[in-house]
């Protein structure tokens, strides 16, 4: 315990003393070598990237998550808990991948998850009004980043009739957060929204790791013969979270040599998240619901796409764009009439990882005109 406390203090000192210097150096290098304009948004992405690189495996649990939870409590009501058991059909989908020591071998283990209404009209009509379930990112390990609230607040103002639910899934930084718990918790929440609340017009939205969870959930819902959501939006999805990018040579590519200077994410930082995510009692290597691009399930997606409208958003500054592009190509190869790259994909020029979510524009009219935001709003509002 004392060692953990010292680790936390050491991390905070590095944030205070080292982070500003490293951020200033990187911003200068980008301005000098690449002639990029250094905006507050750009500084913010570099701060985020370098801050995570100053941490280690314990930092998420002992410093970052407690701080984020404390800040989040000022913006959110108390989380509500729901619980349920894995159905026999769901268990049949999981069982082939479960090892002898898996906690999911028994269907008697109750699954619990938390959610909170971020916004909900007083006269919300479950049958008529849309409801958006938001799955945050953070490498599966980090709680909701407080910077997300401006995005969600503007979204609720633009669509005052739309309910917004934030999912507080179990993160891997906690001892209980082994995959595929995050996927099962999302399915549990989706069942609650569609069956208990009887909501008809459901939209799943996820960013980064949350985008991965959404893509996995769509496949799980399809395979378990459930009703799929009307729409799904993934922002900078982490398509291959347990795949080593070193094997594909991405880290040695010319594109990465530029993007690693520009993006708010780094492969070195992702390595920490991957080590926390790697399941100990679950066969994940060829799982299409985890490494959704590398283990692409064309048959499953051929059935998903006609039932759910999908929007994928990413930026040209992203280090993850290689796997996102490959995933898009594979979706396009299904030849679904409900997936067209020109409509279902938006690429933000000079956009970084989850750029739309981290945009801090307060003016609603100006915010709604931003290219990536405009595309998201158009997609949500479409028939």
UniProtKB/TrEMBL annotation:
Decide whether keyword Transcription is in the record. Answer: no
TM ranges are 12-31
Q: Any idea which UniProt keywords this protein has?
A: Hydrolase, Membrane, Transmembrane, Transmembrane helix
Pfam families this protein is in? Say1_Mug180
GO MF, any single term:
hydrolase activity
Question: What is this protein's record name?
Answer: Similar to Saccharomyces cerevisiae YGR263C SAY1 Sterol deacetylase
Supply the source organism for this entry: Maudiozyma saulgeensis
Taxonomic lineage of the native organism: Eukaryota, Fungi, Dikarya, Ascomycota, Saccharomycotina
């Amino acid at each position: 315990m004392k060692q953990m406390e010292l680790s936390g203090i050491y991390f905070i000192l590095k944030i205070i003393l080292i982070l500003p210097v490293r951020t200033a150096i990187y911003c200068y290098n980008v301005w000098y070598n690449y002639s990029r304009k250094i905006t507050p948004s750009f500084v913010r992405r570099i701060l985020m990237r370098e801050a995570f690189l100053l941490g280690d495996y314990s930092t998420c649990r002992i410093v970052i998550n407690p701080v984020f939870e404390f800040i989040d409590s000022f913006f959110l009501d108390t989380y509500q808990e729901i619980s349920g058991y894995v159905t026999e059909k769901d268990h049949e989908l999981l069982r082939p991948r479960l090892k002898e020591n898996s906690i999911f071998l028994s269907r008697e283990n109750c699954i619990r998850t938390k959610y909170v209404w971020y916004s909900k009209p007083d006269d919300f009509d479950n049958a008529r009004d849309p409801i958006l379930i938001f799955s945050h990112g953070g490498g599966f390990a980090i709680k909701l980043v407080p910077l997300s609230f401006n995005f969600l607040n503007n979204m609720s103002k633009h669509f005052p009739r739309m309910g917004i639910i934030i999912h507080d899934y179990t993160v891997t930084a906690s001892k209980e957060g082994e995959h595929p718990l995050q996927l099962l918790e999302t399915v549990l929440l989706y069942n609650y929204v569609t069956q208990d609340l009887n909501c008809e017009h459901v939209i799943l939205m996820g960013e980064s790791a949350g985008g991965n969870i959404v893509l996995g959930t769509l496949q799980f819902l399809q395979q378990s013969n459930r009703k799929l959501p009307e729409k799904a939006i993934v922002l900078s999805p982490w398509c291959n979270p347990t795949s080593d990018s070193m094997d594909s040579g991405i880290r040695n590519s010319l594109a990465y040599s530029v993007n690693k200077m520009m993006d708010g994410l780094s492969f070195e930082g992702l390595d920490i998240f991957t080590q926390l995510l790697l399941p100990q009692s679950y066969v994940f290597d060829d799982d299409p619901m985890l490494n959704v691009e590398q283990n692409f399930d064309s048959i499953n997606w051929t059935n998903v796409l006609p039932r759910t409208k999908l929007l994928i958003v990413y930026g040209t500054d992203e280090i993850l764009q290689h796997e996102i592009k490959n995933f898009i190509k594979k979706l396009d190869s299904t030849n679904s009439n409900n997936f067209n790259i020109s409509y279902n994909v938006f690429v933000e020029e000079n956009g970084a990882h989850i750029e739309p979510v981290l945009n801090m524009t307060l003016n609603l009219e100006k915010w709604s005109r931003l290219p990536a935001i405009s595309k998201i709003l158009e997609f949500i509002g479409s028939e």
